[in-house]
Amino acid sequence: MTLGNIGGYELVRPLGSGGMGDVFFAVSPTADRVALKVIKQHLVEEPTVRDRFAAEVDSLKLVFGSRVARLENADPFANPAWLAVEYVPGATLRQHVDARGPLTLPVAAMAGAMLADGLAKVHQVGLLHRDLKPQNIILGPDGPKLIDFGLAVLVDREHYLTEAGALVGTPAYMSPEQVRGERELTPAVDIYGLAATLVFALTGHGLYPPTNSWNLLLRITEPSDLPDLSGVPAELAPLLGAMLAFDPTSRPGLDTVRTRLLEVATATSGRTALELRQEVAALTYDGDTELLVPQGLEDPKEEPEDLPVVEEQSTVEVPETTPTKVDPVGAPNPPVDVSWLVDKMRRQYARRSTL
């Protein structure tokens, strides 16, 4: 039993829900596993928003790389609008830290460098992630992967402030310019989000103490109210502090961030980048979270078999009862009613001259 079909994908089970829509584990007709997001109707009510979403989807088709979950299919103009991306098994960074505690310095720094690689691929095609947070990072069998990149374009400042559920886990990782509602955003917003995510990965806490949404947003936009970096190792505190600069033009670029994170990861562990990459996957991937294609969806749908063709001129009398045929899986097919054919052949036989 499935939850329905969208765009040819069978919805198997819900994966989660957020400010932009509901996510389902779904399966294609050829048994490909995807994460299918159904976009909330109010976000795409205006035709201009659907056009913007369609343009974003076209850009997502160009994103590549091992650090991003690839786009599989989408229909921005369907009701409801939806898109399907590669299913990545594993827990989110948020789930991992909540369950097992913060990452070690070398593992967090290496994971951050790998995520910087992913962000670089997103930025290369003119996209911004805009919603980088621990919930949007899957710790897969080959390390961390970014999900939901490019979709935050559908949620503007008004929705963040008024839509129920949209604030959960998101404003704490938003840059000041996003909170202010600026439209001309730069890659610096993702530098800020990556830093906020790494602070959580290293310490288990956010940049500001838990509080109501309005108070949190006010604190983010106050230049003198600095983010909380307590618990961040000294080796990374200067870099993360620079990445969280209030002025986006003061934040370092991705190349600088990746280089520094790699330096810290290798220097503090005494391991190579390859060894650290393998360690990240070994320490963070939870294979028990993987969802498989249900047994009932694995086999292709079989078309009904055609009835046997009997030539009209045949002189062989067909018996009244036909043996029951068994299909390949052992279930008997219902007997075919051929009594009309039997009567017809008997009449033809009666008209023949006796030998």
From TrEMBL:
Signal peptide: none annotated. Residues 298-337 are annotated as: Disordered. This is Serine/threonine protein kinase. Residues 9-262 form the Protein kinase domain. It holds the Pfam family Pkinase. The lineage of its organism: Bacteria, Bacillati, Actinomycetota, Actinomycetes, Micromonosporales. CDD domains: STKc_PknB_like (cd14014). Residues 300-309 have a biased composition (Acidic residues). The keyword Transferase applies. Residues 310-329 have a biased composition (Low complexity). Keywords: ATP-binding, Kinase, Nucleotide-binding, Serine/threonine-protein kinase, Transferase. Coiled coil: none annotated.
